[in-house]
């Protein structure tokens, strides 16, 4: 299976934040949309990075409440690792697991086409395993 199949199921919608928004503004977006990551846009509307709930925890621990007034661009992950719609789910899952992050932008022709979470990938893998197990049970029962 490939990443495009996950995007077709969950949709290609992404939530973005301007690089000049405050950390408090970004946190409000995360909470409002009940998500764990935002794509950060530069002044031209192009993807500049990713801002995640882990960034929030890290900066609050390091700087306290004053961090809420900083610009997202000062704490985001610039140039995050990305995947393509044609990448295999197992490869993306392995990368995310090995590098210990939970959200990955999906690029199509250099433009962000979606975002996948490790949860999306694990759910897809579990559904696939269950489907294969049911097929095997049906095969054995039919023998």
Automatic annotation (TrEMBL):
Residue span(s) of domain CBS: 7-68, 76-131
Database matches in SUPFAM superfamilies: CBS-domain pair
Keyword hit for Cell membrane: no
PROSITE patterns for this protein: CBS
Domain of life from the UniProt record: Bacteria
Gene3D superfamilies in alphabetical order: CBS-domain (3.10.580.10)
Coiled-coil parts of chain: none
Protein name per the record: CBS domain-containing protein
Source species: Telmatospirillum siberiense
Organism taxonomic ancestry: Bacteria, Pseudomonadati, Pseudomonadota, Alphaproteobacteria, Rhodospirillales
């Amino acid at each position: 299976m490939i990443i495009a199949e996950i995007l077709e199921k969950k949709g290609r919608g992404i939530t973005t934040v301007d690089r000049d928004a405050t950390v408090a503004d970004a946190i409000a977006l995360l909470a409002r949309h009940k998500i764990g990551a935002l794509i950060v846009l530069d002044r031209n509307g192009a993807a500049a990075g990713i801002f995640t709930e882990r960034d929030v925890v890290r900066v609050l621990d390091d700087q306290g409440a004053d961090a809420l007034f900083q610009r997202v661009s000062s704490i985001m992950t610039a140039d995050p690792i990305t995947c393509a719609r044609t990448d295999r789910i197992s490869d993306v899952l392995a990368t995310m697991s090995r590098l210990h992050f939970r959200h990955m932008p999906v690029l199509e022709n250099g433009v962000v086409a979606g975002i996948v979470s490790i949860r999306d990938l694990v759910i897809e893998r579990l559904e696939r395993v269950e489907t294969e197990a049911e097929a095997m049970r049906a095969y054995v029962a039919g023998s």
